[in-house]
Design goal:
The structure is a single chain. The protein is mainly alpha-helical. It has helices at residues 2-35, 67-94, 102-129, 136-170; strands spanning 40-43, 47-51, 58-62. Strand 1 (40-43) and strand 2 (47-51) form a beta hairpin.
């Protein structure tokens, strides 16, 4: 179990950092596109680039500078920022000393609810207005597989929490 805690601690940190950078990138892109700041530039054919701060190197490239495209890009970045945030909470559950807790169960439920409810709805709406050509069906299937897997794991955790609570009553 010690190896699981070590790996979970590492993955918790990696996914928290990924979440932070996705959300930070979404805010950075939104601010630059709204205010056309010093790191924003329009390039040929109404395309745009957002540069790394204080450089002329491109960080994000946009296919077209329209409200719809920028909104799609920012919402996509925010959606995956949220995904990595709920995923980090799953890893947080596995790095705890006591595995079967209500907090851990809540983290697992949050992850499967995101993947089975929020993500498909968001992606279906996203696909209706999308300018880009994403493999929406494949994305929904991949997230559904993760969601179902964690749903089963949450059911097992529920049993573990119940057993843990019963055991605590006897001690």
């Amino acid at each position: 179990m010690k190896l699981v805690r070590i790996i979970a601690s590492f993955l918790y940190l990696v996914t928290r950092i990924a979440s932070f950078f996705y959300l930070l990138t979404a805010v950075y892109a939104l601010i630059n596109c709204l205010f056309k700041g010093p790191f924003f530039e329009i390039i040929e054919k109404n395309r745009f680039a957002i540069n790394f701060p204080f450089t002329n190197r491109h960080f994000l490239l946009g296919s077209e500078y329209t409200v719809a495209y920028v909104a799609e890009m920012v919402l996509g970045l925010m959606l995956y920022g949220l995904f990595f945030l709920v995923l980090s909470n799953v890893f947080k559950t596995f790095k705890q000393e006591r595995l079967f807790t209500n907090e851990g169960l809540k983290n697992l439920k949050g992850f499967y609810q995101f993947n089975l409810l929020l993500y498909p709805v968001a992606v279906i709406i996203w696909s209706l207005f999308s300018i880009e050509d994403f493999p929406f069906f494949a994305m929904i299937v991949a997230h559904a597989i993760m969601g179902v897997f964690i749903f089963f794991m949450a059911a097992i955790f529920q049993q573990g929490v119940n057993l843990q609570n019963e055991q605590d009553l006897y001690i």
